[in-house]
Amino acid sequence: MSAAGGPFAKEMAVRKRIQAIYNKLQDDFPSLREYNDYLEQVEDIVFRLVEGIDVAATEAEVRTYEASNRDGIAAARAKRAERRAAELRAAALPPKPGESSVYQL
Q1: Does pLDDT of 82 surpass 80?
Q2: Per residue in 29-60, pLDDT tens?
Q3: Rg (CA), the chain
Q4: Which of 15, 28, 73, 98 is at 20 to 30 A from 5, Cα to Cα?
């Protein structure tokens, strides 16, 4: 990472890469607690990579997770893409008769 990008750019690059792999959604978990534990694990990975702590071991952990969860990662990507497409379709719909597309005070 170049010095011109600075620490923020490095963190964003790491975060983007890790979130593309660790991409489960809340509804993939039986409880909010388990989802929060998963998010904490992801944040720990990002922190270690950004701060240069146990980088080799952390990268190995990420590779192992990615190899073991390849199908789930692809399914989550497809699910997110479909959600985004549905949101875009909904946002592009014209207002229903009697509704305004602008907020009125």
Answers
A1: yes
A2: 999 999 999 999 999 999 999 999 999 999 99
A3: 19
A4: 73
Residue 68 lies in a domain: yes
62 inside domain: yes
> Closest Cα to residue 16, out of 40, 55, 46, 36?
46
- Number of domains making up the chain: 1
Cβ atoms of 51 and 103 within 8 Å: the answer is no
End-to-end CA distance of the chain, in Å? 48
Domain that holds residue 68: 6-91
Residue 7 has pLDDT above 90, yes or no: no
Distance set, CA 1 to CA 58, 59, 89, 90 (Å): 18, 16, 37, 39
Task: Tell me the torsion sign for CA atoms 7, 12, 13, 14.
Answer: positive
The vertex-32 CA angle with 26 and 33, nearest 5°, equals: 130
Does residue 33 fall inside a structural domain?
Answer: yes
Stronger pLDDT, 105 or 102, i.e. the higher one: 102
